[in-house]
Write a structure and sequence with these properties.
This protein is mainly beta and 839 residues long. The protein has nine helices and 56 strands. An eight-stranded mixed β-sheet has the order 3-2-8-7-6-5-1-4. Strands 26, 34, 35, 38, 39, 40 and 41 form a seven-stranded mixed β-sheet that branches. A hairpin with a 5-residue loop joins strand 10 and strand 11.
C-alpha cells in the first residue's frame, strides 16, 4: 500500500516545542491542569510532498534554519467501504512506515490522520516512534467536530502530545522558510517510561497474532499483531497484569530500563529480544552539566557506537562514552549491530544550558540542610553546643537565642562560593526547663551594595536541665550499641560496647533520639532511646567493690571469672600489640587483694588491674600470645565470664589440611537486600552467594565443615546472620561482599578486606595479599570496620570486598564465573597462609 506523506514544517526555537496555530483548535495538555488550554494565536504553514524523495533535503534545510519538521502518515483507502483491511495488517504496515521514517529521517515529530482510525493504531505509532526516538512529538489530525472530540480524548488520556486541524496541513504553496510559527517549551508530554511494547509470542506459540487481551490496570483492550506483540501507553506500575484467554499473567517491571521493549516468557518473566540497546545512565533532559558519561548496554558480543564513534564493549554488555554537550539541543544515539548483523539504535535528546554554577552571595542565603545541630538538644548547664552552617560567601554571621540578647559572632571559613560559619554556644546562662531556638543572622559586610540582613530560625529546641532531672535508664534489648559519639558514618559511629539487657546507667543529656549516659567522671557514651527504658526517679546508680577474681583452664578455653553483683556498664578493648584484652567496669572500685591463677592455662598469662578514675576499674588480661582464636565476655548470673578459646586442632600437612576446622561463610545481602548494582545491572547479592558457595565447596573439599550463613536468596537481618555464625561453633568467619562507588566507570577500582577487631587483622592481610595476585588493583586493608556480622570477638572474622561493581573492568571480572572461582581459590590460599602463621 503506497501512503502519501505530508511534511509539516514548524517554527524556530532553541529547545522543545509547543505548537501554536492561528484561530483553531490546536491543543496541548498541560500536566496538573484539568482543562486543555487553547494555544495563543500565531501562524503555521505546511506543505505536502507526494513521496519521500525530498524529505532528507527538507529536513536538512529546516534544521539549517533551526526549524522543526514533522511527518504525517496517512492511510488512503482504509475508509473505503469496499476495501476491508484487517487491523493486524494495518498495525504491521504502520510499524513498517514508522520504523522507516524514524530510522532513516531526522524528523522532529510524527503524526497521523484520526479519521476512522482504530485507537490501537495511535498507540502503535507513538510507541514504535518512541522506542527509537522518545523525544519525537506525536500528534493526530482532525477535520470534523466528532473527530475533534476523539482527538481530545486521545490528548486528555495522554496518548498524544497535541492535536492539529486538517485545514492547517492542506496548504501546498508555501516554502519551508516562510511563515513559521513561534513555539513554546515542553510540547513533549509523553515520557519514555510510559510507552511499552511486549512480545507475547511465547505465551501463544502456535498462533501469536490476533490474540485479544485486557490490561488489568485500565481494562484497556489490546490485540496482538502478527508477531504476537502489543504496544500501549501506561504509567509504569510495579506489576503489569495482562488478562488473556488462558488466564492472567503478572509481569514485574521492577528492573526495567528504557526503552521498555521486552519479550514475556511463560510465568511473566521478561527478557530483551535481539537486537536491543538501552541507556542505563544518562543526564536529566534539561541540564546545566556540560558533559556526562553515557552508559549503555546490549547483548555481548556486538559492534557498538555512540554518536557514530566505535567504542569498547565489555563482556557484561556495557559500553560508554563521555559526551560533551553544546548549548541547546543535543541528540545522543547509541547504535548496536549483533554478531548476526541485526542492528538497532536508541536516541535521546538533552538540552544543555550554560550556567555559572557558583552561587552568588547576594541576595544573602543560608543552606538550611547544612545547619547543625540537626535535632532537639537537652543538656547540662556546663555543656556547650557547636553550631555551624553554610551561607553567602564572605559576610558577618551571628547566632542568637530566642529570649536572648547577646549575639555570638561566628568564625568564618571562606570557600569558592560559600562560607562555613561556626560558633560555640555555652549553655550556662540558660534557664533550666525553658525552650530556646537558635537564630542565625547574616549581615552584609560594611561597604556592600546590598544592605539587607538575613535571619533564619532553626526549629530544633535547645533546653538545659539539672543533672538530677535526667533519668536513670536500663538496657532492655540484646546487642544494644553504646557508642563513643554520634558521628555519622554509614555503618554508625564507633562502638564502645554492645550491652546486654539489665545494665543501668545515668543519663546526662539527650540529642535527638539518643541519650548521653555518664560512664565516669571523664567518660560518656550514647545509646538509642529504643534500647532503654526509663527508671523511677528514686533509682540509685549501681556500684560495688571488686575484691577477688579467678582464672582457670576449662575444656575449651581459659576462663576469667569477674564478680558482677550490680548491673554496671562495661566494655572490652582488644590490644594485640600488647598481647592483652582490657575489660573496663564503670561504677566499680577496687578492693582487689586476691586474684587466683590456676595451673594449666594455655592462653591467659597474668591478670592485673588498675583504678583509672575513682569509679573506673580496668582489668588487664595479659595473654601468652597475640595469636588467639577468639574470646567472649558474657553475664552469667552475678559474674562476668571471659573465655579465651583454645586453638582448634588441624594439620596443614594433611592431604585435606582444613580437617578439624569449621568455617562460617556469610554471603552479603540477600532477598530484598540487593546490595550494590553493577553497571550492567548485575546484583551484588547474586555474586556474593555464588562466591560463597564456591569458597564453601573448596573448603569442604579440603576437609573443613562449612556453615553457609545465607544458603539461598532470602532476607536475613545482620544480627540473625551474626547469631548463626556465633552459635554454629565455627572457628572462622568470612563475609563476602562487592564494592561500589566513585565517579566515572573507570575510576575507583580494586579489592579490599576489612576487620573490626585488631586481633583479626592478620587474616584480612593474608587474604588481601592473595587477592592481589589476580591482577586486581589495591583498595587496601581497612580496620575498625563497623559491619555488624564481622563485629565479633568469638572467632577470627573478616569481610572481603571482591572488587568494584561500579568499575567496568572489575565488574567484567566479577561477572565471570571462572574469575569468581579464582577468587575462591585465592581466599582459600590466604586462609592457609593465616593458618600457617597461627600453627
Amino acid at each position: 500500500m503506497k501512503n502519501q506523506r505530508t511534511i509539516i514544517s514548524l517554527g524556530t526555537i532553541p529547545i522543545i516545542l509547543a505548537l501554536i496555530l492561528s484561530g483553531c483548535k490546536t491543543l496541548q495538555k498541560v500536566p496538573g491542569e484539568q482543562a486543555v488550554k487553547e494555544a495563543e494565536q500565531s501562524t503555521v504553514f505546511f506543505f505536502t510532498d507526494g513521496g519521500l524523495s525530498s524529505l532528507k533535503d527538507d529536513v536538512r534545510e529546516a534544521h539549517a534554519n533551526q526549524h522543526k519538521i514533522y511527518a504525517v502518515i496517512n492511510f488512503p483507502g482504509h475508509t473505503d467501504p469496499g476495501r476491508i483491511i484487517p487491523l493486524q495488517m494495518m498495525i504491521a504496515n504502520l510499524k513498517e512506515e514508522v520504523n522507516n521514517l524514524v530510522t532513516n529521517y531526522d524528523i522532529d515529530g510524527l503524526g497521523m490522520d484520526i479519521s476512522d482510525l482504530a485507537p490501537e493504531l495511535i498507540e502503535v505509532m507513538v510507541v514504535e516512534a518512541m522506542m527509537l526516538k522518545p523525544y519525537l512529538v506525536n500528534f493526530v489530525i482532525w477535520s470534523e467536530d466528532e473527530e475533534y472530540k476523539s482527538a481530545s480524548v486521545f490528548l486528555n488520556e495522554g496518548m498524544v502530545d497535541m492535536i492539529i486541524p486538517e485545514s492547517k496541513i492542506a496548504r501546498t504553496d508555501t516554502k519551508l522558510h516562510e511563515g513559521l510559527a513561534n513555539l513554546h517549551l515542553n510540547l513533549k508530554k509523553i515520557k519514555p517510561e510510559q510507552v511499552i511494547r511486549l512480545d507475547l509470542s511465547h505465551l501463544f506459540p502456535e498462533s501469536p497474532g490476533g490474540r485479544k487481551l485486557k490490561l488489568g490496570q485500565s481494562n484497556k483492550s489490546l490485540i496482538t499483531d502478527s508477531d504476537g506483540c502489543v504496544s500501549f501507553i501506561l504509567t509504569k506500575p510495579d506489576t503489569i497484569e495482562l488478562m488473556t484467554e488462558a488466564g492472567s499473567v503478572e509481569i514485574s517491571t521492577a528492573d526495567w530500563i528504557v526503552p521498555y521493549s521486552y519479550m514475556v516468557n511463560t510465568g511473566g518473566k521478561t527478557v530483551r529480544k535481539s537486537p536491543w540497546v538501552e541507556f542505563r545512565r544518562m543526564p536529566k533532559q534539561f541540564t546545566d552539566v556540560p558533559e556526562f558519561d553515557l552508559l549503555c548496554k546490549t547483548d555481548y558480543p556486538a559492534k557498538v557506537w555512540i554518536n557514530g564513534d566505535s567504542v569498547k564493549q565489555y563482556k557484561t554488555g556495557i559500553f560508554f562514552k563521555k559526551i560533551k554537550l553544546n548549548e541547546g539541543e543535543n541528540r545522543v544515539r547509541a547504535t548496536v549491530m549483533t554478531y548476526d548483523s541485526l542492528s538497532t539504535f536508541y536516541e535521546r535528546e538533552f538540552y544543555y544550558t550554560r550556567s555559572d554554577r557558583k552561587i552568588a552571595p547576594f541576595p544573602l542565603w543560608i543552606d538550611e540542610k547544612s545547619v547543625e545541630p540537626v535535632a532537639d538538644i537537652e543538656l547540662l548547664r556546663d555543656d556547650a553546643v557547636q553550631i555551624s552552617f553554610r551561607g553567602s560567601l564572605g559576610q558577618d554571621a551571628y547566632v542568637y537565642l530566642t529570649h536572648g540578647k547577646n549575639p555570638i559572632k561566628c568564625m568564618r571559613e571562606d570557600n569558592e562560593d560559600y562560607s562555613r560559619y561556626r560558633a560555640e554556644l555555652p549553655l550556662g546562662k540558660l534557664t533550666p526547663g525553658k525552650s530556646y531556638k537558635l537564630i542565625l543572622k547574616l549581615i552584609p559586610l560594611e561597604g556592600s551594595t546590598d544592605k539587607q540582613a538575613l535571619e533564619f530560625t532553626v526549629q530544633n529546641i535547645i533546653k538545659i536541665r539539672e543533672l538530677v532531672d535526667f533519668p536513670h535508664v536500663r538496657v532492655r534489648n540484646e546487642n544494644s550499641r553504646l557508642t563513643y559519639n554520634l558521628g555519622g558514618p554509614r555503618l554508625g559511629g564507633p562502638i564502645r560496647s554492645e550491652l546486654e539487657p539489665g545494665v543501668i546507667m545515668k543519663t546526662t543529656g539527650k540529642i535527638g533520639e539518643n541519650y548521653r549516659v555518664r560512664l565516669s567522671s571523664i567518660e560518656s557514651g550514647f545509646i538509642h532511646q529504643d534500647d532503654v527504658e526509663m527508671l523511677p526517679a528514686e533509682t540509685l546508680l549501681p556500684s560495688y567493690y571488686i575484691t577477688s577474681m579467678s582464672c582457670a583452664p576449662s575444656s575449651d578455653a581459659d576462663v576469667l571469672s569477674i564478680p558482677y553483683p550490680e548491673p554496671v556498664p562495661y566494655e572490652v578493648f582488644p590490644d594485640p600489640d600488647q598481647k592483652r584484652i582490657v575489660v573496663t567496669l564503670f561504677g566499680v572500685q577496687t578492693s582487689s587483694t586476691w586474684i587466683t591463677h590456676m595451673a594449666g592455662r594455655r592462653m591467659i598469662d597474668l591478670i592485673t588491674w588498675e583504678q583509672t578514675t575513682p569509679c573506673t576499674y580496668r582489668i588487664i588480661v595479659n595473654l601468652k600470645t597475640k595469636d588467639i582464636w577468639g574470646y567472649d565476655l558474657r553475664i552469667d548470673g552475678k559474674r562476668l565470664v571471659l573465655k579465651v578459646k583454645y586453638p582448634p586442632v588441624y594439620d596443614l600437612s594433611n592431604e585435606k589440611p582444613l580437617t578439624g576446622l569449621k568455617i562460617a561463610i556469610e554471603a552479603g545481602h540477600g532477598g530484598s537486600g540487593i546490595g550494590a548494582v553493577g553497571l550492567s545491572g548485575l546484583p551484588e547479592k547474586e555474586i556474593n552467594l555464588d562466591l560463597s558457595f564456591r569458597l564453601g565447596e573448596l573448603c569442604r573439599s579440603m576437609g573443613a565443615e562449612v556453615i553457609q550463613v545465607r544458603d539461598s536468596d532470602k532476607d536475613m537481618s545482620l544480627i540473625e546472620k551474626r547469631d548463626i555464625a556465633e552459635q554454629s561453633g565455627a572457628n572462622l568467619l568470612i563475609s563476602i561482599h562487592a564494592n561500589a562507588g566513585g565517579r566515572g566507570y573507570l575510576s575507583v577500582a580494586g579489592t579490599s578486606t576489612y576487620w573490626h577487631n585488631p586481633f583479626w587483622a592478620p587474616l584480612a592481610g593474608n587474604i588481601y595479599d592473595r587477592l592481589l595476585e589476580l591482577g586486581l588493583k589495591e583498595f587496601g586493608v581497612i580496620g575498625s570496620f563497623n559491619y555488624t556480622v564481622t563485629r565479633i570477638s568469638q572467632m577470627p572474622s573478616v569481610l572481603v570486598e571482591q572488587a568494584f561493581m561500579s568499575h567496568a573492568e572489575d565488574e567484567e571480572k566479577l561477572a565471570d564465573p571462572k574469575f569468581r572461582q579464582q577468587m575462591a581459590q585465592k581466599i582459600y590460599e590466604g586462609l592457609i597462609d593465616y593458618l600457617t602463621a597461627m600453627n
